[in-house]
Design goal:
single chain; alpha/beta; Rossmann fold; 6-stranded mixed beta sheet; 6-stranded parallel beta sheet; 13 helices; 21% strand; disordered C terminus
């Protein structure tokens, strides 16, 4: 039976305070200084993952740096800290190690980490792509959005998740816009897509212009701060926020009742899994990136899988098939750490249509 470990880290200071409550009263710079000096450590044992074809168990390992520290501290320092977390996982017996949140983004997206440890390494990005797109499509059906007419926007399109998502969506989308900072990379991806699928996509680096016209947004930037402002989203927009930290401001939940924001990659895990750690999800569920690590361990595939900036479409197809084999599946919808029912989604749809004088913006297809 293969073993796995998944490296996590505090997304924000509040995550640190939940474990070390006494630090809440310290100055921020002191807290961050202490976290820099704490070595990686085991957070919990993970047990009970089992299907008809295999089983696995593993550990959560903490790399104690916040998202802000991951992007502001010297890159070499951060990567060395992630490597230390990987070595701690190896010492416990991990055969496959998953990189969570910003640990999968820093530097070359896991390539250097994989070169410095013996266990296999994955970012989990292949299965994250698969579940994000599946979730966005199901949400669009419930909202009545006609995907053939929908304006689809990928924010962070040149990253490892964004680029492969763009290539997969281009198979069926008619109106696809790619957004990222590097225009040279955007143009290269656009040429790749028209060669593969024949779709001429639009490219832009101006988020303020692109967001207001989008019906479906896949957000995958890897930024340490929210990049999509609540005021920019059009009524009825569907946002699949795959990024951790989030790309969508939390103000969306407070200020807008005509927007649907879902979290990409929330997965039901087979067996009687016990994570022995509360990361904000209901029992039996995890992020897709975590699930990919588990799947590889269950398959005894001790190989580097989703690494670097070039996730292949074939990898997404492979991990999707293996997930289906073992019974991993999309676990409904969640938004800002809370479950979202189909009734709630239909209520959002109804509010949007009422705001437009009962003239449906969406296809009546459900």
């Amino acid at each position: 039976m293969g073993k796995f470990a998944f490296i996590i880290h505090p997304i924000e200071l509040e995550d640190i305070y939940r474990k070390f409550n006494f630090m809440r009263y310290w100055p921020t710079r002191v807290v961050e200084g202490v976290m820099k000096r704490i070595p990686p450590f085991k957070v919990s044992d993970i047990t009970g993952i089992e299907s008809s074809y295999g089983e696995t168990s593993g550990w959560f390992i903490s790399c104690p740096l916040t998202s802000k520290q991951m992007v502001t501290l010297p890159q070499d320092y951060v990567i060395r800290k992630i490597i230390k977390a990987g070595k701690a996982a190896e010492e416990l017996g991990a055969d496959v190690i998953g990189l969570g949140a910003m640990t999968s983004v820093v530097g070359d997206a896991g390539v250097t980490v994989a070169k410095n440890i013996n266990a296999a390494v994955t970012t989990g990005n292949s299965y994250t792509v698969a579940t994000a797109l599946e979730g966005a499509k199901k949400a669009a059906e419930l909202m009545g959005v006609d995907r053939e007419k929908a304006e689809i926007l990928i924010v962070g399109a040149t990253g490892s998740i964004g680029s492969v998502a763009a290539r997969i969506l281009a198979r069926e989308a008619k109106y696809l816009t790619l957004l990222a900072r590097d225009e040279r990379k955007l143009e290269y991806l656009a040429r790749q897509i028209i060669s593969e699928s024949g779709l001429a996509v639009r490219v832009t680096s101006n988020i303020k212009k692109a967001v207001p016209s989008a019906d479906i947004i896949i957000a995958v930037t890897g930024s340490a701060d929210a990049v999509i402002d609540v005021e920019d989203l059009k009524p009825g927009a569907i946002v699949c926020d795959v990024a951790r930290p989030r790309d969508v401001s939390k103000k969306v939940a407070e200020k807008r009742d005509d927007i649907l924001v879902i979290e990409g990659g929330v997965v039901e895990v087979p067996g009687k899994v016990n994570f022995n750690f509360d990361f904000g999800f209901p029992p039996q569920t995890s992020y897709a990136c975590m699930a990919e690590t588990m799947i590889l361990a269950m398959e005894n595939r001790y190989e580097n899988f989703s690494l670097g900036r070039d996730i292949r479409v074939s990898q997404v197809d492979t991990i999707s098939a293996l997930a289906q084999k073992h019974g991993f599946q999309l676990a409904g919808f969640r938004s800002f750490e809370k479950a979202v029912s189909q009734e709630k989604i239909l209520a959002i749809r109804e509010k949007v249509e009422k705001k437009h004088n009962s003239k449906p913006l969406f296809a009546k297809n459900i």
